[in-house]
Design a protein that fits this description.
297 residues, mainly alpha, 2 domains, two-stranded antiparallel ribbon, 2 strands, 57% helix
Amino acid sequence: MKLTKKQILIHTGLFLITLTTTTLAGAEWQFGRYVGLKENPLTWEYFLRGLYFSLPFLGILTVHEFGHYFIARWHKVKVTLPYYMPFWFGFLYVPSLGTMGAFIRIKEAVSSRVKFFDIGIAGPLAGFVAALGVLSYGFTHLPPPEYIFEIHPEYAEYGLDYANHVYQDETLSFKVGNNLLFAFFENYMATDPASVPNHYELVHYPWLFAGYMALFFTALNLLPIGQLDGGHVLYGLLGSRWHKRISAGLFVAFVTYAGLGAVSPYDATEDLWITLPLYALFLYLLFPGLLLLPSAI
């Protein structure tokens, strides 16, 4: 499939913009400061340090998308190259990862469920292997424990025992959750157990944070709903009828549960007069998503 100059410009331009935004976001997470603040101007050093997050994170994302792409081409299904989606609001002091991901478009009807299954599962599998490589490197190249004092010099007064002093108010802290895979890397792959970061500080370790977020979004993408990769896998396994039933049921359940985060029966009545209509509007806006057909992965 020959690409036109316009297509090359679109794909390349989106990738370069997304590389820039994820680099800025990565620097923000790594240093715990937003770009553009008077005390934190954008410099080349700051930008280049952000590459320690953006390159592994976008690398995993790219491997994921080309997993879809090459299996689709192997099945002789016409697809586009990946479209990268930049997303960064650091200038508003809003945290982000610099991107909303990427996708490829299927440009023709897929003739069999086997092809749907293969194309759908190839991306998560390829991305998972890439994430393992990133995490392996990250855990075998950890900086010394004192590295955290470069980010939080105020911790130095407590020494390496800072964790028992600075996380008393958990409402003001951001903690990355643990999982079996991270437990394995921390216990068996880390070259120096003393250098393994506290999970409250993992965002400052770009290789580990990139691997963690890639695994998180891979897991999220495998939910058997609609146009997610899990939805394509479900369609390939069970066919259209069961795909619609299971996908719709899970979509309704997840969306309904997500909206409940803003509504509580313990709220005051005057508050419910505001939150309940907003919750109803939230459901009204999202439930049309049930009509979407799987055409992008």
